[in-house]
Amino acid sequence: MRRLGVGRRKGTGRRLGAGRRKGTGRWLGAVMTGALVAGAVLAACGGTASGSSATPGTGSARIAWIANTSFQSAPGDTITPVDLPAGTVGSPVATASEPVAMAPADGGRELVVANRGNDTLSVVSTVSGSVTATVTVGVEPDAVAVAPGGPKRAGIAFVADFGADEVTPVALGTMRAGRPIPVGQEPDAVAVAPATGGHPALVLVADFGSDTVTPIDLTTMAPGTPVPVGQEPDALAVVPGTARHPALVLVADFGSDGVTPVDVPGLDAGAFVPTPGNPTGLAVGPDGTVWVAGGGTLTPLAVGGPAVSGAVGGPAVSGAVGGPAVLTAGHAVSLPGVAEAVALDGGTTAWVALERGAVVPVDLATGHVGRVVPVGGRPADIVVTPG
Looking at the domain that runs over 41-385, which CATH code has it been given? Predict the structure, then answer.
């Protein structure tokens, strides 16, 4: 989730100017952006697009859930389902003030939702479309990821508390918040890297205000030494390791206009790779290609191989990572608006949230941009689950 000070770049979709709450440097004015996301008009009006509506639990269609943070003057309090094959919008589900980030749990049958406006974490059933539990976390929760483990093996949600410079672990089996874990300044993105080669699983936290990524040992819950990255890290994505390169966490550096790779578990930062616009979201495809949303573009990054081919392939900018591994930026796809975040529907389609308040599909093989789907509010995040 992007955080900007007064005078930040214009036209990027980041929050500007006044309206900070609790003295934390968090901008609530213009809108939330997402590491995953979408947004627009129909849901705000209580309507749906033409055709059948997206109703949780009624079929096998894939559903995108959009967090509707909206504006400071009219803060949102819902998440909205969109039936992806049909491109239709369902009825919003009320969570709490300013839902800003989501993560799937229980195989996609649940979503955990960080509610920035009242410092809580909600659990939503994607089957019934209702809130089943809520717990208080730290000040201004801004991102969330779910790691395996915890009571009943239900998972542990790690919530980045932007206003407290901490991460709060929540055991989903009991809905109890644990002791906050100190990290860098203004944490605003979280990812989980699985255990590899005898090394423990790691929770990785982007510290927007410190220009670092802080690792947390999932076994001890202890923070490690922060890793310097680019300016204003705003989104994270974990790329599994292969015989050609180690596992990587990619960091979208909003303030530097590019991506920094960090190898796992060594936690060594590699060469920065520039991308168009201010990157605000990352999504990893089944083939390991990473899609970077930012500005008015969607850009592919190939990891450990040549430039992406086809309509979205093109001039490349490469950076060495861990020796033989290479990041190669392909040709950017132009979008009908400023991108806020991105999520993938399988390996064929990216759904991009636009600042204008809509989501739009992009065919990953051809780069074709499909029909814009209005959803309501000013969206902050998007997650795709089975219907």
Answer: 2.130.10.10
